[in-house]
Every structure is written in C-alpha cells, then in structure tokens.
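can u pls check wat happens w/ nicotinamide-adenine-dinucleotide
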Amino acid sequence: MEPTAATESISVMNPATGEQVGSVPVDSAGDVAAAVARIRGNQPAWEALGFKGRRKWLNELRDWLLDNSDRVADTLKAESGKVRAEATIETPYLADQINFYGSKAEKFIGEQKVRPNSMLAATRKLRLQYRPYPVVGLISPWNFPLVLSLGDAIPALMAGAAVVMKPSEITPLGLNEIVDAWRNEIGAPDVMTVVNGGAETATALIDHSDFVGFTGSDVTGKKVMARAAETLTPVSLELGGKDPLIVLEGANLERAANAATWGGMLNSGQMCISVERIYVEDAVYDEFVDRLTTNVEKLEQGVDGETATCDVGAMTMMSQLEKVEKQVDDAVAAGAKVLTGGKRGEGPGQWYEPTVLVNVTPEMSVVEDETFGPVVTVTRVADQEEAIRLANDSRYGLCASVFGPRGRAEKVARRVEAGAVNVNDMIFNMLAPSLPMGGWKESGIGYRNGEYGIRKYCRSEAIVSARTLLGSEPLWYPYNKSRHALVNKMTRFIGARGLRRFRG
Ligand code: NAD
C-alpha cells in the first residue's frame, strides 16, 4: 500500500525472512514544508563555514561511518535482504566520496579567475563564483539505500547546500539511523535531514526544494521532472538501465564469464547497472555460455549464517519479483530456453533463482525492459557489428562492458551508447569518483561524481569588475555621431581579423 500521511507509519520488513524489522512515521506535506524551512534557515551559516569548516564535519561523519560500519550493515541487511558481503560495501563507498569531494571541492567550485576572450573583455576583471542551491532534495530507491541518498548528499553538503533526503519507503531505516547520528552523536549542524513516506512525501519535497536529485525508475523520473517543471526547479535524474555486455573472439573467457556472473547477480541483479543482455561472437559463444552457466549454478542463495556466507540475497520487493517472474515465463512461452534457474525460490522470504536464458529475441520484455532481478540473457551474434547494433538497440544507455583483445574492445566501447563502458572490466567506473556517472537516453539526465557531481548543486554567478573608473564609457549615453563612429571602429577592430580590421 502506498504510504501517505493518513497511513501514519511505514512498517519495514526483512525480505529474506518476512519478519518486521522496524518502522518509521510518514511525513505529511506539511511536515516536509516544515523540515525544509528549518534547514533552509540553517543553510547560510553552513555555507559561511567555507570548504574547511564543512570538510571537518564530513570527515567526522566518515569516521563515524567507518567506526559503525557493522551496525550500519546489520540494518541494511535486515531491511533489504542483501547478503552481508553486499551490505558492507556502502560505508567504504561513502568514505571514499567524502575523501574525494573533501579534497576536490575547492578545485571544482572555488572562485575562478576567468581569462578574457578579447581586448574589450580584458578591460574588466572577470571571475566566476559557484553558489549552492540553498536546499537540495534527494529522492532515492531501495537497492543501495545509502550510496544513492547520502552518497549524493556528500557533494551537496560540500558545496554548501542543506539537504533533505527522502529514502525509499521500502528501506528507510539505515539512512534514518545515520541522520540521527549526524545530529545527536556527531553533533553536526542541522543541515541534513530525512523525510519519510512515498509519492506524497516525495512530491512535497519536490515542491519545496531548490534542486531535486532523483534516483529511481524512468517511470517515476518522468513524473518528478513534470512536477519540478511547475516551479522551474532543476533536476538530475539517475534512472534505470538494460546494460549490455559484449564478448568478442579472443577475450579472456574465464574473466568475461566471472565478470558476467558477478555483474548479473550482484545484489540479486537489483542494480541499475547490472548486466542484463550479453552478446557473444559466434566463435566463443559455446564456451562462454558453458562457463557462465557453470558459475551461476554454483552460486549460494540465501541468508548468511554465523560462519557460512551466501552469494545471492533476497528480492527486496515482491512486486519486482512478480515482474521478473512474468518476464522469464513470457520469454519461455515465446521460445526462450532456461539454462539454469528460471523460477522462484522457496520461502520464507522473497527469492528468485539466479537465471541464465538463451534463445531470446529482441522483442521479448526480458530483453527490452529493465529486469530488476538475477537474470541474464545471452545472444549469439555473427560479429562485432551485430553486437554493437543490438547493444545500442535500447531506450536505455546507462552502463556497458566489452570483453576482448584490448585494442579492438576499446574501439567497440567507443561506439556503445552508454554513460560508461568498462573494457575487460565490470562496473569499475562506480569506484572511480573522478569520472562522471550518468545515463544516456531514458537512463537519465545529468551526472553524479566528478566535477559535474558537485557543480550541479550550484548556480554560476559571473562577477565582472571594472578596472578603470572613468566618468562614463563609450557604449553608454549620450549617443551621438562621433561616439557611434568610435564604437564602430573599436568593435570592428576587435571582431575582424587581418587587414579587414583597418578597413571601413
Ligand atoms: P521508484 O522509481 O519506484 O522509486 C524511487 C523513489 O521515488 C522512491 O523513494 C519513491 O518513494 C519515490 N517516488 C514514488 N513515486 C513518486 C512520485 N510520484 N514522485 C516523486 N517520487 C516518487 O524506483 P525503485 O523501485 O525504488 O528503484 C528501482 C529503480 O531505480 C530501477 O529502475 C533502477 O534502475 C533505478 N536505479 C537507478 C540508479 C542510477 O544511478 N541510475 C541507481 C539505482 C537504481
């Protein structure tokens, strides 16, 4: 049921066990307005702290996250049904973001002297200042509850903005715990807060924010953009994907199959950048498919015990599980073949078996639409041209991988339509925050990470300062013939090149 203010609270369930693990109150539109107003009032003092002052508080947050990483992982594991190995990767990512933007923010958004492009512009001192949007609203999904909320809050805070986050109603506990620690254990300024709820709460956040960062499905992303358009509020949208992986003849097939297994099944395939469609050149198809299927069959799915570790966790949302099940069943009914998996796992909890599908066709939903589950499809292609054509035949363009001899694989990578392409590698771009990460086509608008990941939270302000203080300027009033002739001569001299400067 969609949580609304009338629902009062959200009950959070462990998808791996079916047990209730916590609850949070729902924030009404009025609560959201009040939360935004409160932190809006605190933002100027935060901005005035400067880079050094803000970095100090974020470094304290980093230390808290690292010191409490087990506690945070326990909460993430309980609310999402992830395996432990995957619940523990979020805090190191956040620490890396804090270190990256802590050391680079000033370079990216510090005041810059700007070189004049012409003699006319050189008569003034030109500078560029970046000022933060006072309140940044972040709306996030459930698959990486901290990376996709707090991870985006870090550059916004370093830019001097105050941040209100609306976590997914499915996994709000970890983020609420951290924001509580920011305020009560770390004692940091009240410039980062959380509001809880579903669409109603998120919509109110859009209405009151100065910039909206949204991560989620393309369907919701379009609604966010439409709502933000009503107040001309800028947005960045990090949306879904249908990531292709291309395997060329001459690839290291062991590495390619291991990468495809991990990239397809990581977080139970509930990742915007998980591998979904694999295209393999004819000469290496059979060996690759054998290796991949053997790998996937060996994966342990379940709940980690005291000593035993599992590879693949639960499906966090029942509605996604049902969607994945329907995509696979429909594909099989239309002629696809299941090499392993292909059905729900047994309860308690919500499970879908790691699945490899072949004999698929482009019009099947499992090939065309995002599959938020542990399912990969493998297609035999005649050559690299067919692989590139099929990889690009998608409304999405988030991430991709190409495996093959380096030179050829890099050439192919440059022709793939995606925000990031990993060559002989798997989603490594996520671990390189100096590179932008964003989607092409319906995978999004804007980027996180790199310079853009912090500049997007700022407005540019051009500061122009006169070098001389004459009583008047040739361009100003009064207009008369002699001034007009002088201005014409000057502008021609500046605009023209060669002897043309002196004619006319
Ligand atoms: P979702 O779109 O259903 O929900 C995302 C967020 O939007 C939630 O917080 C939800 O409460 C909120 N929301 C719901 N209705 C809204 C509305 N009308 N207006 C504003 N906000 C609203 O997505 P999800 O199921 O939580 O997450 C899965 C999707 O997220 C997948 O499509 C996945 O590919 C995508 N995703 C993208 C990235 C990326 O970086 N590109 C990363 C992770 C997930």
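The first helix runs from residue 29 to 48.
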